[in-house]
Here is the input.
Amino acid sequence: MKNPVPQAASLLLEKLLLLVHVRPLPAGSGGEPPPQPAAPGYYDTSCFKRGDLLEVPRTLFIHFGIYLGENRVAHLMPDILPAFTGDRRQIQQVVTNKRLILGVITKTASIRVDTVEDFAYGGSILVNHMDRLFEDQVLGSEEAARRAEKLVGATAYSLLWNNCEHFVTYCRYGAPVSFQTDKFCETVKMIIRDQRSVLASVLVGLASIVCLGLAPSTTLPTIFIPFFLWMAG
Here is the structure.
């Protein structure tokens, strides 16, 4: 029987990449940078103004950045490299999957400046779409851009508490907020409160025991995860 562990690990990494808004590289890429997603001039930047909040919808989430003018966007990305070097040339290279995943795990990131093409990666761009949610809190465009420029560099990262959406809402509206995080947390609460999740966790645990064998690494989660879900529900 083929060992399911590598497949499960690969699936987990793929989902993680979706969470942080970066498309996974093809299998066997060895973590090398992907090809350029779009040629320079692919996007019409004449409609963008300095300080605009740019959104790029992804499969599950949205990636955010602040437009700085001259085809430059400041955005926050998980990245392990700034923890090891201050060489801007190395850091400015395209963030590979390995750098990104290690950045998520170690909670390190960088607020970097890229071209619109590299930022959007071929996706559609929404401009100031969140302004309607912060009617009286929108800061001046120049103030938003200056805030973004001031924060460029290494920073801490948290998928829930300090991601790209927190960065842009702080820059443009004065307060770090993430509606994606709020929605995700509400979904987790719904799953925990649904007692069917207890049964589902038991079935998954039993399946792992059948596939991987009886061991502490399979037995203990099968016991404790349903128990905690039951107590929290």
Residues 1-35 have pLDDT under 50 and may be disordered. The CA atoms of residues 90 and 158 lie 23 Å apart. DSSP finds nine helices and six strands in the chain.
